[in-house]
Amino acid sequence: MHRDGEGDRIFLDRTIEAFVRIAILAILLAWCFDIVRPFIVPFAWAIIIAIGLYPGYERLTHLLNGRRNLAAVIMCLLCFALLLVPALLLSASLVGEVHTVIGAFGHESLKIPPLPDAVAQLPLIGDDIARIWSEGSSNFTAVLVEIEPELKVALRWTIGVAGGAGVGVLHILVAILIAGFLLAQAEAGQRASAAFARRLAGARGVEFAKLSEATIRSVTRGILGVALIQSLLAGLGWLAIGVPAAGLWALLALVMCVVQIGILPITVAILIYVFFQVGTLTFLVFLAWSLFVYSLEHILKPVLLGRGVDVPMAVIFVGAIGGFLSAGIIGLFVGSVVLVLGYKLLVAWLNGGAESDEHAAAMTPAQNHPPQG
Q1: What are the C-alpha distances in Å from 214 to residues 200, 208, 220, 274, 353?
Q2: Contact 309, 288 (CB under 8 A)
Q3: Residues 95, 290, 223, CA angle at the centre, nearest 5°?
Q4: How many angstroms separate the CA atoms of 348 and 346, rounded?
Q5: Are the CB atoms for 329 and 247 separated by under 8 Å?
Q6: Which of 181, 161, 150, 201 has its CA nearest to residue 49?
Q7: Which helix (H) or strand (E) holds 73?
Q8: 135-155: per-residue pLDDT in tens?
Q9: CA distance linking residue 214 with residue 40, whole number of Å
Q10: Cα 128 from Cα 120, distance rounded (Å)
Q11: For the chain, how far is it from start to end, CA to CA, in angstroms?
């Protein structure tokens, strides 16, 4: 009995000691996570940018005779010029338009402009549009009172988007800087990721790491890259022609391009608006620009996407929208990439398990019935 009591005491002491160690480790991990949480999304975006730019960075390094730091600096400057400058212009437009609308509501000076006669004469829908427009023009205050709850929700969302645009630009800046550092240390990063993958997934870790790299590069170049190029060029065109809220339309176009709906619906609506607002020559130039921007999807995707990304559209849609709702502009990109990556790794893991089961099933009869000698 004495030995049993002593054994119970030793077991209890070890259990308490293990619990204290686990509790301290959990507290430390939670504390560390709370500290680095603001940097998780920018750092994830930086990794995505670095992986997407790595082939171009390697070619530039070769042209510069192996000067990796200089190549990384040049890649960062190119990213700033191609991404940050248009993003700043469109963000400024978005914030300015939101402040203008809010000020007009505050001073009750927002007026509905007269409907162009050409719109009222459109077949099938012209009469209905004219009637609704006339009711809003004659008694706009009553219309506002009627839709006040929905209007508050829409304004709150728009203000949040406008405020998040500045934060998103700052995140892009930080992500590009981190991506430049990651590119300069690419070899060490590859060794570290391979070692981590082996520790995490054993023999298949390196295979999963290569699959992750290929998936991120395909999604970044073939989906996100094309969406970003299209939305930025379209937004700059809308800004130049004087389309109201060009920044907001560019943001909406970016979301629609990422979720694979495309830029065509917004382009058609804006073309109709511009047709009634500008002269024929200006409209034709703008039409040519819009057709060029729209055709980029069909020109760049086959080149940048390579063999393509065999992923259901719902995965990209949910990842993009969920990331946008949780982390703003950067989450739009990071969410789609992370969810696609998770899907591809899950499929690879399941296929690996199926292959193992098939191999075991093929080996079982030979093991149960050895050849007779």
Answers
A1: 19, 10, 10, 42, 21
A2: no
A3: 75
A4: 5
A5: no
A6: 181
A7: helix 68-79
A8: 656 655 555 555 556 556 666
A9: 21
A10: 8
A11: 60
Task: Please name which of 253, 241, 233 lies closest in space to residue 285, comparing C-alpha atoms.
Answer: 241
More confident residue, 289 or 370: 289
Tokens of 82: 């191609």
Cβ-contact 98, 155 below 8 angstroms: no
- Which residues, including other chains, have CB under 8 Å from residue 202's CB and lie 6 or more apart? none
299-304: which pairs have CB atoms within 8 A and are 24 or more residues apart? 300/225, 300/226, 300/229, 301/222, 301/226, 304/221, 304/222, 304/225, 304/226
Q: What share of the chain is helix, strand, coil (3-state, %, to 5)?
A: 85, 0, 15
Amino acid type, 162: A
Amino acid at 60: L
Question: What is the pLDDT, as a whole number, of residue 106?
Answer: 52
What amino acid occupies position 291?
L
Structure tokens at 242: 């004087």
Per-residue model confidence (pLDDT) at position 117: 63
To the nearest 10 degrees (0 to 180), the angle between helices 205-219 and 2-63 is 50
Q: Counting beta carbons within 10 angstroms of the beta carbon of residue 294, is it exposed (0 to 12), middle (13 to 18) or buried (19 or more)?
A: middle
Q: Cα–Cα distance between 306 and 288 in angstroms, integer? A: 28
What does the buried/exposed string (b/e) look like for 282-291 if buried means 16 or more CB atoms within 10 Å of the residue's CB?
A: ebeebeebbe
Buried b vs exposed e over 45-65: b needs ≥16 C-beta within 10 Å?
A: bbbbbbbbbbeebeebbeeee
Q: What is the pTM of this model?
A: 0.62
